Amino acid sequence: MTARTTPGPRDRLLDAAQELTYRQGVGVGVDTLLKTANVARRSLYEHFGGKDGLVAEVLRRSAAEDAAAYRATMAAAGEDPTARLLAVFDTLASVVGQADFRGCRYLAADLALTDPDHPGHAVTRAYRAEVTALFEAELARLGHPRPAAAADQLLLIIDGIMAAGATRPASDPAAAGRELALLILTPAG
């Protein structure tokens, strides 16, 4: 029995689309995707039903990876809810500081996918709900008086960090966002 060392067409399409849709946006052409993945057009339709299905699956895959990264960041920060939430903002500083940083994949997809029924929108909504729930649980453990509202505010700050990181990287948006997050975590009594 030999072990498969080369990914199949489905995985090559996912890998290529995950990279290209982040660098170039979801409007990247099908021909570019197929060429980069080194697959025939038929593979796209067999595995994903078309480009919309591929985009939704890439968003799903990325969302799972990113949600896991949030959990790992928070877990590495220990048990204190404040430290766990602030660790997210500390990590974002290194994320937006990367040379190849292009902003938030989910915000970019939502803005580019003009069809409100595109399956990608359901994925981005579910991802944001999952991250918000992570924050809300920490805020509840912290004893925050409005954990749901505060979790929404933290996500709004993260959206701003990601947008500013792509458009105004010299502004150090993660540090500014961390300061705002700290205000939310320690509400005036």
TrEMBL record:
- For this UniProt record, give its keywords in alphabetical order, as a comma-separated list: DNA-binding, Transcription, Transcription regulation
Question: In which residue ranges does the UniProt entry place its DNA-binding region annotation?
Answer: 29-48
Which InterPro entries does the record match to this protein?
Homeodomain-like_sf (IPR009057), HTH_TetR (IPR001647), Tet_transcr_reg_TetR-rel_C_sf (IPR036271)
Keyword Chaperone on entry: no
What SUPFAM superfamilies does this protein map onto?
Answer: Homeodomain-like, Tetracyclin repressor-like, C-terminal domain
Q: Does the keyword DNA-binding apply?
A: yes
Q: Name one GO molecular function term.
A: DNA binding
Q: Where would I find the HTH tetR-type domain in this sequence?
A: 7-66
Q: Which Gene3D superfamilies match?
A: Tetracycline Repressor, domain 2
Matching PANTHER family: HTH-TYPE TRANSCRIPTIONAL REGULATOR YJDC (PTHR47506:SF1), TRANSCRIPTIONAL REGULATORY PROTEIN (PTHR47506)
Name the record gives this protein: TetR family transcriptional regulator
Give the species this sequence originates from.
Answer: Kitasatospora viridis
Q: What is the lineage of its organism?
A: Bacteria, Bacillati, Actinomycetota, Actinomycetes, Kitasatosporales
